[in-house]
């Protein structure tokens, strides 16, 4: 078994792990930049929100739900033209970032919206009574109070993206998923597949533990 892991294969493991980190990191960051404001918007325009607008909320929420309900493997294929437009290719690590980001943004938006719902409405009413603007309510009341829940949601998203990134490897997205498919499956090396799975498990555990630690720290500060 150990003879399988030649220096070249070990180096390939390292580069594939780096590709997975890049895919998860970039798509998670960009997805958060899109998803957090989108989640705030959905909460503000929802029933009881300071910008209550049912029609607009349903329209945007419908788009979010449509993307969320699309299986990731179908999304990968469906947006190939967009991926080629943005990255110049439909395969490779950066190409995989595009569908991963599109999958992450609405997922984060709903998690952020849920976290904001948990904020005591009395705090918002008190801020409004003191003449706070919508911007002040968002940045001084809603986001600070909901921050532990938002961080927990982002942690869940990163864990999900790790699984999605492995799936992207099945169509040439790079990363550990691609390594597992090419060597573990196509070349009949089950020990490589097992090693990929173990690395992904350890990586996910590390992500979850780090996220939980941040949530505890933030909860103690509130």
Q: What would the keywords be for this entry?
A:
single chain; about 220 residues; MetI-like fold; 9 helices; elongated; transmembrane; MetI-like; transmembrane helix; AA_ABC_Transporter_Permease
Instruction: Give the biggest beta sheet.
Output: none
What integer is the average pLDDT? Answer: 89
Question: Given the C-alpha coordinates, what overall shape results?
Answer: elongated
What is the assembly state of the chains in this entry? single chain
| Helix and strand element order | HHHHHHHHH
User: What's the name of the CATH homologous superfamily?
Assistant: MetI-like
What does this structure look like?
- This protein is mainly alpha-helical and 222 residues long.
- It has one domain: Orthogonal Bundle (MetI-like fold).
- It is 82% helix and 0% strand.
- The protein is built from nine helices and no strands.
- The protein is elongated and about 70 Å long.
- It starts with 6 loop residues before the first helix and ends with a helix.
């Amino acid at each position: 078994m150990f003879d399988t892991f030649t220096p070249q294969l070990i180096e390939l493991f390292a580069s594939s792990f780096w590709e997975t980190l890049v895919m998860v990191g970039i798509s998670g960051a960009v997805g958060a930049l899109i998803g957090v404001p989108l989640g705030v918007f959905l909460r503000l325009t929802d029933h009881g929100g300071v910008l209550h607008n049912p029609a607009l909320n349903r329209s945007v929420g419908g788009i979010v739900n449509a993307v969320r309900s699309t299986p990731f493997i179908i999304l990968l294929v469906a947006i190939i033209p967009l991926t080629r437009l943005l990255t110049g290719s439909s395969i490779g690590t950066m190409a995989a970032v595009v569908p991963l980001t599109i999958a992450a943004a609405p997922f984060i938006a709903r998690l952020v919206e849920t976290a904001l719902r948990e904020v005591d409405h009395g705090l918002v009413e008190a801020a409004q009574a003191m003449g706070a603007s919508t911007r002040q309510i968002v940045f001084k009341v809603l986001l600070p109070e909901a921050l532990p829940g938002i961080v927990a949601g982002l942690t869940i998203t990163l864990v999900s993206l790790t699984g999605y990134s492995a799936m992207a490897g099945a169509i040439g997205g790079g990363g550990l998923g691609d390594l597992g498919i090419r060597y573990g499956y196509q070349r009949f090396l089950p020990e490589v597949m097992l090693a990929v799975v173990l690395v992904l498990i350890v990586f996910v555990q590390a992500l979850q533990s780090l996220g939980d630690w941040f949530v505890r720290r933030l909860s103690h500060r509130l």
